[in-house]
Fold this sequence. Notes:
Elements: E1 2-6, E2 13-17, E3 22-26, H1 29-34, E4 38-42, E5 46-48, E6 56-58, E7 66-69, E8 78-82, E9 88-93, E10 106-110
Parallel strand pairs: 3-10
Antiparallel strand pairs: 1-2, 2-5, 4-9, 6-7, 7-8, 8-9
Amino acid sequence: MKYRGSCHCGRVAFEAEGELTGVLSCNCSICQRKGALMWFVPRSALTLLTPDDQAASYTFNRHVIRHRFCPECGIHPFGEGVDPQGNPMAAINVRCLEDIDLDALAVTHYDGRNK
């Protein structure tokens, strides 16, 4: 299924394709503050609908995940990184997707704070 999403102001818009069966809630220092519920897809399943330079990037700690956010409204719609096998991945913040029933999603809690 194809999902459409964006930041609050629409400066960063995208589509993501895949089966959304559950999300991950991480308690690391940035995810807890953002309140993001993440859905991981291959990076090729994420299509930007706005120019890439419309989104700013933030990295920290080991600098392996590019946390992408809108410099205008501050919303974090997705992140980019690689999986343990080295495959490019995107972490979609499902709170930024249109027409999603968040209460219907299975949430897996991840202890990123202690990893």
